[in-house]
Amino acid sequence: MVTPSAMDISLSHKTLHFRKPARTSRGEYTTHNGIVVTIRDEKGEKIGLGECAPLPDLSCDRNAYTRMSDVAKLIREALASESYSDFLRPYPALLFALESAIYDYQQNPILYDTPFARSETGIPTNGLVWMGSHDEMLAQAKRKILAGHRCIKFKIGAICWEDEMRLLRKIRSRFSKDTLEIRVDANGGLGHDMDLVRRKLEELAGYDIHSIEQPIPQYHWKEMEGLCREGILPIALDEELIGVNDIGHKRLLLETVKPQYIVLKPTLHGGITGTLEWISEAGKLGISSWITSALESNIGLRNVALLAARAYGPAISFAQGLGTGLLFTDNIEMDIEMRGAKLWRCKVED
């Protein structure tokens, strides 16, 4: 096991630039900032990499990393504590970065003893279609389908609803639910009028939609529980999980809302430790899950993929949200690549 005294930890800032602005119902991204955590041994040779990249309008710890000195102090205090993962529970983005860097440094079998880590198999991914005009979104969907994706995820809720439904109707007219799975992500964008939300869910259900992520804004447990119970459309919680870092609170949320699915982003939902807790607690209640990236660079994306491979076993059939590596013009080169609809780890030479 690596010990604090044996590690040389350095921090560096990285800004990524989107090829095209990434639109959601919350707004638009053109850049994304992150901090790379690098661990070296005493000889400066063996390294481990992790990434702390909170989302500015979502992460519960988004304001914790304004100065590098603050980040360095948190890491020192965490490593000096009895359990750095417990110490960093309120800081999921940094916890994910530090856990990833340590596991990478160790080549810990928790992440590195899987067929994916050994470059023996790829992980199926959904094809992500960002918000845009009807024609732009249709073109994106066609490219994803031609690339081999059999699961497409549409960001919805920020443009004309009729245009979004026209798009889904056109896709469904050519691809049945048996040949193409469609997921939609509203990012809370269907609003607070629950009668209108239900009408929209009923309309979506007419297109054989697999599930909808976060149809209404977070912190409305009663309303969300009602939607999950009524079962108009299977619901996946995403933003609702942010800031719920204590395991007891996780149980309370899942037992209260009883969603059909949860969508896990290690940067937002507790790092490696917290993500595995969510999966375990959800599984006890018969709630399924999948893992996605949160716009990290290839450093974070690689570590998210390694975690997904560990969490769901060697025969992952459920599409994960790992197809974000091509979004940036200046991504960091790492040992992962998309091949068709699957993310692969490139073979690592001894």
What does this protein look like?
It is built from 11 helices and 13 strands. The longest helix has 15 residues. The chain is 36% helix and 21% strand. A 7-stranded parallel sheet has the order 5-6-7-8-9-10-11. The protein has a 3-stranded antiparallel sheet with strand order 1-2-3. It starts with 7 loop residues before the first strand and ends in a 5-residue tail after the last strand. The protein is α/β, with parallel strands linked by helices. Helix 3 crosses helix 10, helix 5 packs parallel to helix 6 and helix 9 runs parallel beside helix 10.
Question: What are the salient characteristics of this protein?
Answer:
3-stranded antiparallel sheet; alpha/beta; 350 residues; 7-stranded parallel sheet; Enolase-like, domain 1; globular; TIM Barrel; disordered N terminus; 2 domains
Rg, Cα atoms, Å: 20 Å
- Derived structural class: alpha/beta
Give helix and strand order, one letter per element, not per position: EEEHHHHEEHEHEHEHEHEHEHEE
Based on CA inertia axes, which overall geometry fits? globular
**Oligomer kind:** single chain
Share in β-strands: 15-25%
In the CATH classification, which architecture of the largest domain applies? Alpha-Beta Barrel
Low-confidence stretches: 1-5
Total DSSP E strands: 13
Main sheet makeup: 7 strands, parallel
**What is the CATH homology-level superfamily of the largest domain?**
Enolase-like C-terminal domain
Under CATH, the topology of the largest domain can be stated as TIM Barrel
Classified by CATH, the class of the largest domain is Alpha Beta
